[in-house]
Amino acid sequence: MNLIVAVDKNWAIGHQNHLLVRIPADQRFFRETTTGKVVVMGRKTLESFPGGEPLKNRTNIVITRKPDYQKKGVLVAHSIEEVLEMCKEYVEEDIFVIGGEEIYRQMLPYCDVAHVTKIDYAYQADAYFPNLDEDPDWEVVADSEEQTYYDLEFYFYRYERVKER
């Protein structure tokens, strides 16, 4: 299973249920990487999308504690265990966890690949992603050249869970 996230220099991912910044190249990477795949997210992440609508051309799985939650075009799960059971129907490499903070933290142990866009700027934030650079279970296996969007510098990283030696 994969996850995909954009973080600032403090591993922040959001503020008041919004992305910190929208970078066209990062959004394009997200779209190209997840189209035709399964995306797993929390309810608040879904509600942060335009019109609160699921992402097109993807299987959208939403985790929520609301027992009667329903949304057209969405598969609903009420626990991590339920999501993991649902995900057995799909190829593991085609599943992407896309947020938010609580879902990333709960799903991280089940992921082997993390696509991280690192933005070289510190934003005001209230949601964070675990710092994989400080986690011995993860290592960088690929990174991009410096990218720029106006005066922002950012990089694409691929982390993989360290296999038992």
How does this structure look, described?
The model has no long low-confidence stretch (mean pLDDT 96). Strands 1, 4, 5, 6, 7, 8, 10, 11 and 12 form a 9-stranded mixed β-sheet that branches. The chain has a 3-stranded antiparallel β-sheet with strand order 3-2-9, with no helix packed on it. With 165 residues, the chain is an alpha/beta fold. The protein has a single domain, classed as Dihydrofolate Reductase, subunit A, CATH 3.40.430. It is built from 4 helices and 12 strands; from the N terminus they run E-E-E-H-E-H-E-E-H-E-H-E-E-E-E-E. Strand 4, helix 2 and strand 5 form a beta-alpha-beta unit. The longest helix is centred in the N-terminal third of the chain and has 11 residues.
What are the salient characteristics of this protein?
165 residues, alpha/beta, Dihydrofolate Reductase, subunit A, 9-stranded mixed β-sheet, 3-stranded antiparallel β-sheet, 4 helices
